[in-house]
Amino acid sequence: MATITKEYINGLITTVQNLYLSDDIPWMIGYSGGKDSTAAVQLVWMAIERLPVELRKKPIHIMNTDTLVESPVVSKWVEKSLDAMREMAKEKQVPFIPEKLIPDFNDTFWVNLIGRGYPFPRMKYRWCTDRLKIKPVNNFIKNKIAEHGEIILVLGTRKQESSRRNRTMTTLEKKRVRELLSPNPTLANELVFSPLETWSNDDVWVFLMQYKNPWGYSNMDLMTMYRGATADNECPLMVDKSMPSCGKSRFGCWVCTMVENDKSMEAMIANDEEKEWMTPLLEFRNKFGNPEGDRERRSFRRMHGNLQGNYGKLFHGPYKKEVREAWLKELLEIQQDINLNGPEEFSTLKLIRIEELRAIRRIWVQEKHEFCDSVPTIYKEVTGMEFDDPDWICFDNFGSEEWKILQSVCSRLYGEEELAFEMMYNLVDIENRAQGLNARKGILNDIEKAIGRTFYMNEEDATAYYSDRMNRKKQMGGKYNEKFLDYISEEDSEVEDVEE
Ligand code: SF4
């Protein structure tokens, strides 16, 4: 543990300055807006500001990952902080460059959950951290490494955060080739500097309270944000998958289902009447993240329509069309309500961006063959506005009218067959798209695949089909799914529902 005295901080500042001046390798600092990363940025800032202007040559990128599903209050806080840094850096002639890193719009939380229908993130299927946090940072860092050959990453991580963190940091410390700089196990040419490695929680607060924030932000307000929260963890800059879930943190995503209840958001609402407007967010997250009945909300086939299972039951895959549509509508309604009736500063808050809505539209229409094209309809229904999508190209022979007719015909003729309508709209759409001679290439293959995905009457029929197939393979001495066929009894085993 460090003791935060003036001498100690001055000594640390000199260490930071020496390291900064020792080479030309650019620096990056992870900044989440939380206390640890604020302390790290503040310490480096103080060190650089005390150097003569002509020595402040190396750029220092302050990286903040915005998952696009950050808690709105924290997100606003961070946004204002980055703006303040930008202004102050210019004024004080310090080489800090704030960078907001966001996920690819085709790979955001909503595009995967509502668009593709991925099951909400859970322990065995945590698909979000990599897409929302790790990839944007790694892409940014990789580009900088390609440009400069090497980079130094400054993190506010501390050994006392957890025993796991302590173990990892100590192991990497032993692999140091340069003093104070640990290698990154997953990214070559990246060295990690953790100036707060020996600090305790209290040390961080003592430092933040004793030293004025150099970009003119209020560390006192930061403390107020923490006060009342039941979870005091901080979501660090995620650089690899071995890091634990960041969901317990108040600086994590409001949609996080990795924790049973979003304690920090609950606390924020409970402790502050002004935050009551966030209650619908919490309720919505509890709804889509409810494991009870989740199986029934999802198709009994995998993402690409194939069957798979264990313990005599099929895995359930993506969310069904009606579930995805209902969630999109509800999300837009919450957004609309906050914009109109919430606090003034959130009157333009976007819970889901227009780019994400466009990506969802493309997945539904082009990949899932849902030619009724419901995104613009839902959008207009909720907001009263036309959906803006200038690059949209479509075949308009079939639309929502034809969709309804086909649906009613299918239910009249094949009422018993659960997937008959899906088979029909898939076939109609495949044929509709293959209008030119060139586009007809591969059409038979596509038709065959569509039929292969939808020829079961219902889940029971599909289970029997899959079971027969496995039995045949077993009898022929081939490789088969033992976990599905040779299970002991259904009661003894829990059905594993998602892919690991
Ligand atoms: S906070 Fe939760 S939802 Fe967000 S990336 Fe981390 S685990 Fe996923």
From TrEMBL:
Keywords, sorted A to Z: Transferase
Annotated Phosphoadenosine phosphosulphate reductase domain residues: 28-210
Top-level division of the source organism's lineage: Bacteria
Gene3D superfamilies, per the entry: HUPs
A molecular function GO annotation: transferase activity
Pfam families noted in UniProt: PAPS_reduct
Signal peptide interval: none
Protein name stated in the entry: Putative sulfurtransferase DndC
